[in-house]
Specification:
- By secondary structure, the chain is of the alpha/beta class.
- The protein has two domains: 33-249 and 264-446, no CATH class; 457-595, Transcription Regulator spoIIAA (2-Layer Sandwich), CATH 3.30.750.24.
- It contains 21 helices and ten strands.
- It has helices at residues 21-28, 33-60, 65-82, 97-128, 140-163, 174-183, 190-209, 215-233, 242-245, 283-315, 321-334, 347-355, 362-382, 387-402, 404-413, 416-431, 434-456, 491-495, 520-535, 547-555, 571-580, and strands at 90-91, 247-250, 253-256, 344-345, 458-463, 477-483, 507-514, 539-543, 565-568, 594-595.
- The strands form three sheets. The protein has a six-stranded mixed sheet, with helices on both faces. Strands 1-4 form a two-stranded antiparallel ribbon.
- Helix 5 runs parallel beside helix 16 (416-431).
- The protein is elongated, with a radius of gyration of 31 Å.
- 48% of the residues are buried.
- The model is unreliable at 1-13 and 583-596 (pLDDT under 50).
Length: 596
């Protein structure tokens, strides 16, 4: 049986991912009616928050609002039951908008659902091969930069509906979008701006009055009432709503708004393409969608595990990253068969879940069930929600997502290299997309890290005397101190110090106690340095070899050789041996501590 931590979560370094690990550990620890009631209450509150968000995010992603609701229902419920985080709430998120909108624009709903399915399969593989821990190697400046960049893109996209601008087709590139928005400002409608402004004001001010009732419920209700009131007072006034913008077909007839139906099973490729015609699945299309699917999977993995870390920090629990990735994958595989788009862990909804007293993953399941009940019972009412109000909600989401205060703090206190990476990722996300941003950002961060390691990794000539050596080494023996890992970024520079030795030197001692790791490049450069020294008639002693470099040397067949090379696990043994090797004296046949 795998061992568990103090909170009952599976140890992350053992065994294979166990689907439902978080739920199983919670149930084993005891679960009563009071826990069930707390989970149900938290699930309802989160469902109220998720309901408009799911629709708004689907619209921003270029698909009808019901697809966001189906995502919250199917993916949200499945991931809750199978996941590795006790409090995580999953569903459509704002971060996906910049990835999903271009896919839906080019390939239609069918292409977006197929890409989501492919991303889910990638996530399943990542979880199964235990890649969850690798997400921590994405540098903080990269995540901060692309998150802030996504926030800017999302906010820009909401200006059209917030102000009621008349833009027949929003351009795909950011600069062109800004130009289109500025040029269409004369078409702004004061009524739409008023509805959006009221919604935004309530969203900001209501939490200061009370947190018992979720702010989105009050704010969107106020926006809808204002829209109805303006239509009564001004007969010519028309507010864009979900019902006026979207429609669905049922039994051969067209109806406004969203269908009053639960998610129904259908093949992802049975939905229409960008032209409205049936989506035709082919290997060429799969290859075209593969980069987008990979981007969705990587962003979903990063965001879900970041959200799980936030939940751990708020509750003192520990999530299983591999199980969570596996669950996210299964959720994204199943959701497209019910009309759902890409889903991942949602930080804001997860935090709301915790604040309102969630006890187990069942709270997230109750959130999915609440959204399902709302679709079946209140779909016509949801059609009255103004587009300006949904835009205001996403503007607030974008603001919170940008975390301007943290962004500015990082700019002030971080090293210049990290600031450069952050700003580069931010700019690339806005101008191009998140895939380019993360790819370039990770490469830049890796190169800068290697440069820092190169500055730390050195080979220093100590000579015959040293404060720690008493008496000094005999004539003809010198000591080099090698510090830092020997890897491809630093090995050549570090080992170049051994290119030449002074006349009369017969023995060189290499102090490798501070070399924790060595890669193939480091090995090649060390072999070259040893060969040059041997050609000069110099014997080399390596003292204080750590386990990882010792394994590398052993696999390479490098071992002690009389008169040429001695490998010592102990630095003191290496120094003792060097004192015996006075000029002209043969090396001892055996040395205690030397590695054969």
């Amino acid at each position: 049986m795998p061992r568990t931590d103090a909170h009952g979560a599976r140890r992350l370094d053992e065994g294979m991912p166990v689907p439902g690990a978080a739920l199983l550990s919670r149930l084993r620890g005891g679960y009563g009616w009071s826990d069930l009631g707390a989970d149900a209450l938290a699930g309802v509150v989160v469902g109220i928050v998720a309901l408009p968000l799911a629709m708004a995010l689907a619209i921003a992603s270029g698909v009808p609002p019901q697809h966001g609701l189906y995502t919250a229902i199917v993916a949200g419920g499945v991931i809750a039951l199978l996941g590795g985080s006790r409090f995580q709430v999953s569903g459509p998120t704002a971060a996906f908008v910049v990835l999903l909108a271009p896919i839906s624009s080019q390939f239609g709903v069918g292409g977006l659902l197929v890409a989501t399915l492919m991303a889910g399969l990638i996530l399943v593989v990542l979880g199964a091969v235990r890649m969850g821990g690798l997400i921590q190697f994405v540098p903080h400046p990269v995540t901060t930069g692309f998150t802030a960049g996504i926030a800017v893109v999302i906010a820009t996209l909401q200006v059209k509906d917030f102000a009621g601008l008349d833009i027949p087709q929003m351009p795909s590139h950011y600069a062109e979008r800004v130009v289109a928005l500025v040029s269409s400002l004369p078409t702004a409608r004061p009524g739409e701006i008023g509805i959006g402004a009221l919604t935004l004001a309530v969203l900001l001010l209501w939490p200061r009055l009370t947190k018992r009732i979720p702010a989105p419920l009050v704010a969107l209700g106020a926006g809808a009432l204002l829209a109805l009131g303006l239509q009564q007072i001004f007969p010519d006034f028309h507010a864009d709503t979900i019902a006026t913008r979207f429609s669905f077909e049922q039994d051969g007839a067209s109806f406004p708004g969203i269908p009053r139906l639960p998610p129904l099973f259908a093949m992802p490729w049975s939905w229409p393409d960008a032209t409205g015609r049936p989506f035709v699945l082919s290997w060429d299309l799969v290859r075209s969608l593969a980069p987008s699917a990979l981007a969705i999977a990587l962003l979903g993995a990063i965001e879900s595990l970041l959200s799980a870390v936030v939940a751990d920090g708020m509750t003192g629990t520990q999530h299983d990253p591999d199980t969570e990735l596996l669950a996210q994958g299964v959720g994204n595989v199943l959701a497209p068969f019910f009309g759902g788009i890409a889903a991942t862990g949602a930080i804001a909804r997860t935090a709301t879940n915790i604040r309102y007293g969630a006890r187990s993953p069942l709270a997230s399941l109750f959130h999915a069930l609440f959204v399902l009940a709302a679709v079946i019972a209140a779909a016509p009412l949801l059609g009255h929600l103004p587009m300006a109000s949904l835009a205001a909600l996403l503007l607030l989401v974008a603001w919170n997502m940008s975390d301007v205060r943290h962004f500015g703090h990082t700019l002030r206190v971080a090293p210049k290299s990290d600031v450069f990476v952050l700003l580069t990722c931010f700019a690339l996300t806005v101008v191009f997309d998140m895939v380019v941003s993360v790819s370039v950002g990770v490469v830049l961060a890796a190169l800068l890290f290697m440069r820092r390691m190169a500055e730390l990794s050195t080979v220093t000539l100590v000579g015959k005397g040293h404060a720690a050596l008493s008496p000094p080494l005999p004539s003809g023996v010198i000591l080099y101190d090698i510090a830092g890992p020997l890897f491809f970024g630093v090995a050549q520079k570090a080992m170049s110090a051994l290119a030449q030795v002074a006349q009369g030197v017969r023995t060189v001692v290499l102090d490798v106690r501070d070399v924790p790791a060595m890669d193939a490049t480091g090995l090649v450069n060390l072999e070259s340095a040893l060969q040059r020294l041997h050609q000069s008639g110099v014997m080399v002693i390596l003292g204080g070899i750590q386990p990882q470099p010792a394994r590398v040397l052993a696999r390479a067949g490098i071992e002690s050789e009389d008169g040429r090379l001695v490998l010592c696990e102990s630095f003191d043994d290496a120094i003792a041996l060097a004192r015996l090797l006075v000029p002209g004296a043969p090396p001892p046949a055996d040395t205690s501590g030397a590695a054969r």
